[in-house]
Amino acid sequence: MKQHLNPVAIPGEAQFAAIADFALGSVVPIPDNALRHCSTLLIDTLGVAAGATVLEVGDIARDFAVDFYAAGAPENAATILFDGRKASLPGAAWALATQIDNLDGHDGYNPTKGHIGCAVVPALFAFAETQPDLSGLDALRALVMSYEVAARAGLSLHATVSDYHTSGAWNALGVAALGCRLRGANTDQLRQAMGIAEYHGPRSQMMREIDNPTMLHDGSGMGALVGSSATLLSMRGFTGAPAITAEADEVAGYWADLEQNWTVAENYIKPYPSCRWGHAALDALRQVMQENLNVTPDTVASIEVRTFDEAARLFAGMPDSTTQAQYSLQFVMAVMLKHGTVAPGHIAGQGLKDPQIAALVPKITAKATDQHNSRFPEGRWSDVEVVLHDGTRLQSEDTPASGGPDAWRSDTDIESKFHSFCEGRLSNDRTKAIWAMRDALLSPDTRFSDLAKLVQPGCDA
Q1: CB atoms < 10 A from the CB of 251, how many?
Q2: Which residues pair with 78 in a beta bridge?
Q3: Residue from 177, 258, 260 nearest 15 by CA
Q4: 13-266 in CATH: which number?
Q5: Separation CA 394–CA 292 (nearest Å)
Q6: Which family does the record assign (predicted)?
Q7: Domain limits, CATH 1.10.4100.10, in the chain
Q8: pLDDT tens-digit series, residues 92-107
Q9: 373 Cβ partners below 8 Å, 6+ apart?
Q10: Of 322, 382, 390, whose CA–CA distance to 352 is shortest?
Q11: CATH top-level class for 276-400?
Q12: pTM of the prediction?
């Protein structure tokens, strides 16, 4: 039984002082691999944002932000990326985070069972818009910090509550810390902001969304909204109860390795725009297909996926929306069998009406095993057995989801994914220019606004 935190058991200033020093003024060198991986995560997230511009939920979110989250003064506005219109700073962050969250191709951190970049990257652009001289390196350092704060908030929450909450419940604290750093907040303002963000963060139940996929997705849109609002409120003197996921005695161990363990370097990059829980099965099937060229939609009689409980619980039917498609294990497995990959076009539009895919979905089943359950959440592993019409049985190896610490993807693979997500949304020249910023941001001569100007105008098809 997990122990619930006693909200009275706040140890005072000492524990939070170390967090504040790290969040607001730490000058400890960030390892090169962590800084470079953060730059890759940033650009990868922008690719997902570009790919998601055509989703219905993206249209709704951007229009809603303009109509109902408008800024009262120009200095309080921010540009919605890949759109060009302005909303309030929290509104712009919310719209982009909601858009990214609903394509489900963004990064994540296994131990938290969730995602950080889809909330903190939109917040970075919103807060940085009024700082044209912000260097690329300083922006990356702030982003690294927000990943580290959010990861530990997530670990603390999951360890101390009985229900499994969406990422927005804890990545809001990373957004608040990011905003406070870029706004020059003091320690007390950061403390209030993190307290506000935790208190109002969406404690939404993730498995409700798994059982009934909707546009709510992983709650990161609200995480971005709440976290950025918390910063702005605290800067105006609004107070919040101390964040117990940062300050309580019970979670001290999750924060003790700040400036020592750089979790940002362990964030995975998804190769496919679907729920990460299904990726190990996709990679296992891909392995079988590569080793047996006679495995095709016409030759397969059945596929059994052996996985962990959460993956086996993913939507099992033929989806009628992109949201359902991304949370459907059987559907994406059928897509992999037909196309050899899963790309944005396969989970939207005509991809949802493919009769061959619809015929394959009922042939695919999933069940959980103790072996794969024991590896979750630190790892996502599966294996598959493919049975052909002629009776041949083909068994994969136990396979980890690729793109993370268990099976990193190459830089070439990551760049290819980025270009595929931008295809048809941005011009080739603009896509190449954004990707080139992955390296340029590491140069002391680059300003963050050099990247921002590439994503602020409306999309060019």
Answers
A1: 22
A2: 87
A3: 258
A4: 1.10.4100.10
A5: 9
A6: Belongs to the PrpD family.
A7: 13-266
A8: 999 999 999 999 999 9
A9: 308, 309
A10: 322
A11: alpha beta
A12: 0.93
